Amino acid sequence: MRWPSAWTDPALLALLEGTPFNCLAMEWSPALAAVAARARAAGLPLVAIGNALEGVAHGLDAPTDSLLLASDAVWPGMTAEERGAESGPTANPWIDSNGWLLRLARVRSPQKTVWLMFQPPGAPRVVLLDAYLRAIADSGAAGGRWVVSLDSDLQAGLARGDAKALASWKAIAGAAGFFERHRDWNAFEPLGVVGVISDFAGPNENTTPEILNLMGRRSLAYRILETRAAATAPLDGFKALVYVDEGAPAPPLRRRLLDFANRGGLLVVGAGWKQPDARPAGIDHPRVDVRRLGKGRLAICKTSPPDPFMIARDTHMLLGRAYDVARFFNLSAFLSHCSASSDGAAELVQVVSFAIRFPDDVATVWVPGKCDSARLWSLGSPGSSPIEMVPENGGTSLNLPPVPVYAGIELSLKRG
């Protein structure tokens, strides 16, 4: 956790007892010398943040080889004016989330634990307990971790031993511990038949990441391929590839992507692509020129740079719903993460809710295929509980009870 600068009393280290927090991120201040000394004596690692050089000079540790992302991370949630927004089965209001950032970081550094550093909003925003749990779940569901940081009100309440603050602290520690106990889920591979290819650098460091962000809001499951990996990575299992980086790809990659379309895939590309020998598909589309290419389709953007929102939307519309890895009903303002074990025998559907859910809400998640079993995990529950499974439309519908912030659904799949 991030140790509050206002906590200069070493006795407050007792709050960490029985929690999963075993390392403190600290901005050095002479007033914290006694806290640092007590923490070191207790065997707690202290990592310097802020002016890290000054912290290291006073005996704090430099950041480890775990990946710390201090920039670009946001406080997860909706802005106040969007709280009343409604959405249908596949649409969401504007949500701030770090899911796409964590997904990209894990592709780039698969052997590292990705830690995000962001702080709660200040006054006049009131930070409720659900907001802390959501921040933990938003990071944990995407395979990362949040360096937990407390707002000034909660800091003050804990320092004076306020009962409500202590109850919130217990729930926050419990949520952090939940994702620590389920680290094995991080080994699951993301599901999705849409591949997003980019170097995510230079002129492409804004557009393509925003496409990832917006695909997540549409519950359009995607997988990330960096340009170098796309030249050799297997493309089996993809039904659509999106490559809208500025400039033309290297000839080998271009040939590979066109071959993907010729074999039946949907290829969405930027306006800079010269049209190959492709015939019009007879679709009058306002934003992309859709052409037939072999057994598949080529969709060439008409503007440069393309609108990320429209790329996410149009890719989903052109691909259709037949390849959805999950569908969600009676949920608004949520994000989902779908993944599977390496052998394909188990799947995991995680849902982070950004809206208020009421006691009589019943949400439904539909997944393709048949399941042997389905179990629900939620924050604050001692264990998992079975979910009713209903065969429907060639798949399985799962009825969820009201889950205020987070639901993790473990699925065991039938073979054959």
Structure in words:
- This protein has 416 residues and is of the alpha/beta class.
- Among the domains are: 128 residues, Class I glutamine amidotransferase (GATase) domain (Rossmann fold); 87 residues, Sandwich (Immunoglobulin-like).
- The protein contains ten helices and 22 strands.
- The strands form five sheets. A seven-stranded mixed sheet has the order 8-7-9-10-13-12-11, with helices on both faces. Strands 6-15-16-22-18-19 form a six-stranded antiparallel sheet, covered by helices on one side.
- Helix 5 packs across helix 6.
- The longest helix has 19 residues.
- About 3% of the residues have low confidence.
Seen as an oligomer or otherwise, the chain set is: single chain
Helix content: 25-40%
CATH topology (fold) name of the domain at 192-319: Rossmann fold
CATH C-level name of the domain at 192-319: Alpha Beta
Compact summary:
The chain has 416 residues and is of the alpha/beta class. Among the domains are: 128 residues, Class I glutamine amidotransferase (GATase) domain (Rossmann fold, 3-Layer(aba) Sandwich); 87 residues, Golgi alpha-mannosidase II (Immunoglobulin-like), CATH 2.60.40.1180.
Secondary structure topology:
Elements: E1 24-26, H1 33-41, E2 46-48, H2 52-57, E3 67-69, H3 99-108, E4 114-116, H4 129-141, E5 145-146, H5 152-159, H6 163-181, E6 189-190, E7 194-198, H7 207-217, E8 222-226, H8 227-230, E9 240-243, H9 251-262, E10 266-269, E11 279-280, E12 288-293, E13 296-301, H10 308-319, E14 327-329, E15 334-340, E16 346-353, E17 363-368, E18 371-377, E19 385-386, E20 389-392, E21 395-400, E22 406-413
Parallel strand pairs: 1-2, 3-4, 4-5, 7-8, 7-9, 9-10, 10-13
Antiparallel strand pairs: 6-15, 11-12, 12-13, 14-17, 15-16, 16-22, 17-21, 18-19, 18-22, 20-21
Helix pairs in contact: 3-7, 4-6, 5-6, 7-10
